[in-house]
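Researcher: I'm preparing a figure for a lab meeting and need a structural model of a single chain. I don't have an experimental structure, so a prediction will have to do for now. The sequence is pasted below. Please return the structure as tokens so I can convert it later.
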Amino acid sequence: MMADENTQTDAPVVDGGAPVDAAGEGQRRGRGGRGGGEGRGRGGRRDERRPAQEEDDGTIEKLVHINRVSKTVKGGKRFGFAALVVVGDGQGRVGFGHGKAREVPEAINKATAAAKKAMIRVPLKDGRTLHHDGRGHFGAGNVTVRSAPAGTGIIAGGPMRAVFESLGVADVVTKSVGTSNPYNMIRATFAALADQTSPKSVAQRRGKKIADLLGRGGSKSAEADAEAIAE
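Model: Understood. Here is the structure written out token by token.
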């Protein structure tokens, strides 16, 4: 009888009163540990999906860069995060903004709000490429953008690709020289896009017809092209 009592007291007992061996307890803890790890992994993947997404209002948001920053205050340093975001509607409007906060989501929200307030309109040719070549400069960054025929795609890397994808450009060739700083590259790209003009705006400014600017006189093809550009 004494042996039976010792056997029952040595085995661990769960809430229901049934004995569980040490191996089972270890497996149960292992499953709990793996479950916690998987939960953290899923959270990390959600953060990775956050950089490029489309909102309900049709705007495209792309997270270009996140940097950890610090501010020296009395008693030490205060750490935070700086986010650079590009926002566009995919139909010729694009903007960029940056924001700082103690947490990453708040910094992204600030940058997104700033980008939506600073959106500019860029005229597009046939809704897919630029009307003409251009150059932009900011700080040590120099970028060159060129119009391209259909099927070329977006030949751009890093921050510049995010700008053209948000803008709605499908065919463009770009080159960046001088810096890899995403802030300078974005500002130089916007400087190049700000100089873009369309035949319609030039014709209105000079008081001429679009067909005259195309250099084809009054031919039917020139008139058809002019109507397409005007639309």
